Amino acid sequence: MIKQSSKISLFFKKHQKSLVFWGFLAPALLAFVFTIIIPFFLGLYYSFTDWRGFGTPEFIGFENYIRLFTAGGNESIRFIYSLIITFVFAAINIVLLNIISFSLALLVTRGLKFQNFYRVGFFLPNLIGGIVLGYLWKFIFNNVVPDVTLLASGESFLMLADRNTAILGISLTWGWQYAGYLMMIYVTAIQNIPQDIVEASEIDGAKFMQRIRHIMLPMVAPAFTVTLFLTLINSFKQFDVNFALTAGGPSTEFQGLSLWGTKLISMYILDTYQVSLRPALAQAQAVIFFIVLTVISVIQVQYNKRKEIEA
Amino acid sequence: MTRKKRSTLLLEILTILLFVIFFSPFVLLLMNASKETSFEVLTDPLALTGTFAQLLTNMEEVWTSTNTQYQQAFVNSITITTGSLIAIVVASSMAAWVLVRTKSKISNLIFLLFVVAMIIPFQVVMIPLVSWFRTLRDVTGIPFLRSHFGMIFAYVGFGAPLSIFMYHGFMKSIPYELEEAAEIDGCNKVQTFIYIVFPILKPITITIMLLNGIWIWNDFLLPLLIVGKGTPFQTVPLAIVNYVGAFVAEYQFLLSAVLIAMIPVIILFLFAQKYIIKGMVAGSIK
Amino acid sequence: MKKLGFFASSLLAVTALAGCGGSSDSIYMLQNKPEIDAALQAFAEAYTEETGVEMKVTSCGGDLCQLGTQLQADIAAGEAPDIFVIDGIPAYEQYEDMIADLSEEPWVEDTDVAFKVDGKVVGFPVAIEGWGMAYNKDLIDEFNALPGVTTIDVTELTNYDAYMEAFEALDAEKVALGIDSVVSMAGGAAGMSWVTNDHNFNSLLSAGLEYGDLSVVEDLLEGTVDRTRLGYYADWVNLLFTYADETVLRTGGYNEQVGAFAEEKAVFLHQGNWVEPFLGDAEATFARGFAPHGVFPASVQETDGIFVAAPSWYVVNAQAPEARQQLAKDFLTYMATTEAGHKYMVEEAGNIPAFKSVELSPTAPLSVSVQEWAAEGKIYSWNQYYFNGDFRYNELGPIYTRLANGEITPGQFETLMTIALEGYPDFLANL
Question: What is the value of pTM for the model shown?
Answer without folding.
Answer: 0.85
